[in-house]
Amino acid sequence: MMATCPLCASAETAFYHRDARRDYRHCRRCDLVFVPPVFRLSPAEERAVYDQHENSPDDLGYRRFLGRLFDPLRERLAPGARGLDFGAGPGPTLSVMFEEAGHPMAIYDPFYAPDAGVLEEEYDFITATEVAEHLFAPGEVLARLAGRLRPGGWLGLMTKRTTTREAFARWHYILDPTHVGFFSEASFQWLAESLGMSVEFPAADVVLLQKPAAGSREGGLSENIADRVPCCR
């Protein structure tokens, strides 16, 4: 079964793993491991899984979990920096944490907060926690988000990363049927280069990408790509 990589659009993909439910392919260009479209859930099936989530700002354990992204990103933000939490889910919490820290926030979620108007505005930072692995078109979506950043802005992502093929076969992360894309550190390095952004890895499941400041010779690619693509799943 051939399938084009949903991150870099390369046709150079190969079989990687098979379990009882689906196949997984590997991209030789950007190192993404992904589930071919034939194995994806329908929107209704996806929504049924997400409706089972019980995340809430009142859950201190969930706040600690989100702190892995919140803490390093907050350290890099100017006072009053404005953000967007993309893929906020049924119980937006990270946005509440940033608002408590003095950062005005917008939220977007295709199922629970589908106001696409917020995706046309510009932000000092954008977060997407436990979102990248759900995206059907991660290359398009992440480029679009990068294009909504002001110069010097940050894109903060939280998703577990692949390591070895042997570990992948035993990985609990692939058991969630809504997880369809699995990034390695090399995948994010490819993404950063393609968008003209810098990249940092402050934790095993956290990635921070920064858009160049105004006047820099870098970064034009991110705006050009983002202007060409829709924001979609």
TrEMBL record:
GO biological process, one term: methylation
MF GO annotations: methyltransferase activity
Known EC number: 2.1.1.-
Species of the source: Halomonas mongoliensis
Matches recorded under SUPFAM superfamilies: S-adenosyl-L-methionine-dependent methyltransferases (SSF53335)
Enzyme category, top tier: transferase
Pfam (any one): Methyltransf_23
Protein name: Class I SAM-dependent methyltransferase
Keywords: Methyltransferase, Transferase
